[in-house]
TrEMBL record:
Species annotation: Mycena rosella (Pink bonnet)
Protein name, entry field: Cytochrome P450
Lineage: Eukaryota, Fungi, Dikarya, Basidiomycota, Agaricomycotina
A single cellular component GO annotation: membrane
Record PROSITE patterns: CYTOCHROME_P450
GO molecular function, one term: oxidoreductase activity, acting on paired donors, with incorporation or reduction of molecular oxygen
């Protein structure tokens, strides 16, 4: 009781909402789905409701274990300050430990170690890589479309579990644009493994995907222990998981060696562009002495892989497809936009050079498709919260407000929030994205127009935190935007997306409830996202 009181006294004038689990603890995300008090601060489904209840954009809670004061923020300016002051507000890297699967990486490191990773990675995430991402997305989605068409019925329709397919699509893009290893949709997964390998590449990839969640949610010490001792129940699953991750690691390390050998030999690799080649190149030009250390092969591999671990693109594209099935008028607008870019048909191949020419105009030509994707991320941010630890005593500014009888936020006044060293500061991305101060009273509605500037409206940049901001923002943002906009535009150009037959006769709100369900695992994960696709006829 005494420690609780000491912790809660540190909040100053911020309202207090009791004891909750640590914001990013794996337990809180696994149990989040079943947490009964869904409007309670800290619940994954509370959206902005607890900030309305307390009339404040900052709420204090105390962690169940450790009694650590935790401040939850839904205020754009406060969050911007926290993200910018990365020396005062450090990432809660302890919570990322299980994501360091292949070794330390950009996401799970801090301080000098993080800087070393970011310095090597920055130049690799350039326009050449994005051009390659565009080209490979075109290739992979066309292979996917061929697969869908071969399975479609005589009326050219097919009903699919979107997530299952998109996990493969986005992984194939990553393997190619990330590792320079083209995997065809049709490649046989029963191919004999090459010498020195237990699994063929495709088999290593597919088994790794199926064990991704087990690995990411298993504490490293249990994982390590399971290699030495036969653990009851979970032992065999962990052994299988280890086998698949080890098999993929060996393949990836081969690719790194190959890339380096090409570089040393002065050869132009047939791995085209791609992150791996650029990373290997940037790493080789880094100084390697007592002060500077190059990244190891494991670290390079980990930096590329961690971007996929979250499956952010697969999840966001799934939500976007479900939303397009529910909102045909939005889909029609994307279709009209794609008719302007591709008057004849969706391209089946793209060269990276043609994309490079196209890229500067891309955002302009696909403004609406991009807005649909951003609005999807606003409603379903893959990471709904981030957590930082204060390294020094400091002060933030938040806002108090009084909701009117019609629920509108009014009487907004600033107030100071003392932050004690060691406190957790939780950036509540979902609440920020639902905050009516920035997005209006209809913040929960799907309206891509919010992301289109007009002469009288400029969309609130600081209130969109889907890719984070400041020095620790997503390094793969352009990669993800290129991939997702290309995939969405190609999809809508080729297919009409609608709700599956079993939902067709239901009221709209019921369709919405059933199609947009999600669970808070490592990232916001769609549940049972099923849509019907009908091939569009070629434009006459
Ligand atoms: C829809 C897609 C994506 C979204 C919404 C997204 C979102 C985010 C967010 C919110 C962070 C901050 C995480 C934190 O502070 O803990 C982040 C970091 C990061 N993302 Fe993404 N991401 C996406 C796709 C990607 C892709 C495709 C890659 C790589 C190919 C990638 C690589 C990374 C890396 C390496 C970091 C750590 C950066 C650092 O700390 O320096 N992300 N991402």
């Amino acid at each position: 009781a005494k420690t609780y009181l000491t912790a809660s006294r540190s909040f100053g004038a911020s309202p207090q909402a009791g004891i909750v689990l640590r914001p990013l603890s794996p337990l809180s995300s696994v149990l989040g789905r079943w947490f009964p008090l869904q409007h309670q601060t800290g619940s994954y489904f509370a959206k902005f409701s607890s900030y309305v209840k307390y009339g404040s954009t900052c709420i204090g809670t105390v962690t169940l274990w450790g009694m650590i004061p935790t401040l939850w923020l839904s205020d754009a300016q406060t969050i911007k300050t926290v993200a910018a002051e990365s020396r005062v507000f450090r990432k809660d890297v302890e919570q990322y430990e299980t994501l360091n699967i292949y070794g330390p990486n950009l996401l799970g490191t801090e301080g000098a170690d993080w800087k070393r990773h970011r310095r090597v990675a920055n130049p690799a995430f350039d326009e050449a890589t994005n051009a390659f991402v565009w080209m490979e997305t075109v290739r992979v989605v066309n292979e996917w479309f061929a697969e869908l068409d071969s399975k479609a019925g005589s009326d050219s329709t097919i009903t699919i579990d979107v997530l299952e397919d998109l996990v493969q699509v986005t992984l194939f893009v990553l393997l190619s644009a990330g590792f320079g290893r083209r995997v065809s949709w049709h490649e046989d997964s029963s191919t004999e493994p090459p010498s020195g390998h237990k699994l063929a590449f495709r088999a290593a990839v597919t088994t790794t995907i199926s064990h991704l969640l087990t690995r990411a949610l298993t504490p490293n010490w249990i994982y390590a222990l399971s290699a030495r001792v036969r653990l009851p129940l979970i032992g065999p699953i962990l052994a299988e998981t280890r086998e698949s991750f080890d098999a993929l690691r060996l393949h990836m390390l081969d690719l790194i060696s190959l890339s380096r050998a090409w570089m040393v030999g002065g050869k132009v690799s047939n791995m085209d562009a791609g992150l791996l080649r650029s990373l290997v190149e940037a790493n080789m030009t880094e100084a390697n002495d007592v002060h500077h250390k190059r990244l190891t092969d494991e670290e390079l591999l980990s930096d590329i892989f961690v971007g996929h671990l979250f499956q952010t693109s697969a999840h966001s594209l799934s939500f976007a497809m479900a939303l397009l099935a529910l909102y045909p008028a939005v889909q029609q607008k994307i279709y009209e936009e794609t008719l302007r870019i591709w008057p004849d048909d969706c391209p089946s191949t793209a060269s990276s050079s043609s994309h490079k020419e196209f890229m500067p105009q891309l955002i302009f030509f696909t403004a609406y498709t991009l807005a649909v994707f951003q609005e999807t991320i606003r409603l379903f941010p893959p990471l709904t919260r981030l957590s930082k630890i204060a390294q020094a005593d400091t002060t933030l500014t938040a806002h108090r407000s009084i909701p009117s009888s019609s629920g509108e936020i009014q009487g907004i006044t600033p107030f100071s929030v003392p932050v004690r060293r060691g406190s957790i500061v939780a950036i509540d991305i979902m609440a920020l994205h639902m905050n009516p101060m920035y997005w209006g009273q209809d913040a929960e509605e799907f309206k891509p127009e919010r992301f289109i500037d007009t002469e009288t409206y400029r969309w609130p940049r600081d209130a969109f935190f889907g890719f984070s901001a400041g020095p620790r923002s997503c390094i793969g943002q352009r990669f993800a935007l290129t991939e997702n906009v290309c995939a969405l535009a190609s999809l809508v150009r080729s297919y009409e997306i609608s709700v599956p037959n079993y939902l067709a006769g239901k009221p709209f709100l019921e369709q919405k409830r059933l199609l947009l369900r999600w669970k808070p695992l490592i990232t916001t994960t769609p549940i049972n996202c099923v849509v019907r696709l009908q091939r569009r006829m070629p434009v006459a």
